[in-house]
Amino acid sequence: METRDRIFTVPNALSLARLLGVPLFFWLVLAENDGWAIGLLVLAGLSDWADGKLARALNQTSRLGTLLDPAADRLYILATLVGLTVRGIIPWWLVAGLAAREVYMGLVLVVVKRHGWTGLPVHLVGKAATMCLLYSFPLLLWGDHDGAAATAARVVGWAWALWGTALYWWAAVLYTQQARQLIRALPPRAGAENEGVAPAP
User: Fold this and answer.
1) How many CA atoms lie within 13 A of 58 on its CB side?
2) pLDDT tens digits, 52-101
3) Cβ partners under 8 Å of residue 30, min gap 6
4) What is the pLDDT of residues 150-195, one digit of tens each?
5) What distance in Å separates the CA atoms of residue 179 and residue 196, rounded to the nearest whole number?
6) Which of 11, 127, 135, 174 sits CB 3.0–4.6 Å from 55 for a disulfide?
7) What is the C-alpha separation between 74 and 69, in angstroms, rounded?
């Protein structure tokens, strides 16, 4: 489906709403209003799924949407990591592993842009990694409480978090391969800028 220069679309509105919810979610986590925080995070995950479906169903893909969607995902992951680390729910090594991946992908994107490309096509593994991480966070937040249900949520949440982190790094490997193939197979003309999609989380 062709990407077009659209701004006012239903998927973009969902992505923008998800972005605007990040500071509210962060405040809820720090204030330990876990019920509302979990609800907001679940809504964010559902909207992430819905905006992609609607973009394809309504033929409303846009360049802005390809930027807003991964930006919202990254910000929710960042806000959750910081909030849960401050509260002592997740350890520093998990944060360090995910942060290192972001730094690495930033370097890959710099190299890609130096060759005239604006980004890389979103990979399914990257989307799957983001889904795993976004699903794990509300479970880990719930697991910080007492009771059998909270214990089960903590176990499942950690399973999703570890699997999501592994997929996050595997996606980085695949994006690196994409970058190499793109640069070698289709070198851009001097001074020309090629269209691309920013890498997904």
Assistant:
1) 15
2) 777 677 676 767 767 777 788 788 888 888 888 998 888 999 989 998 99
3) 83, 86, 87
4) 999 999 999 999 999 999 999 999 999 988 888 887 654 443 444 4
5) 11
6) 11
7) 9
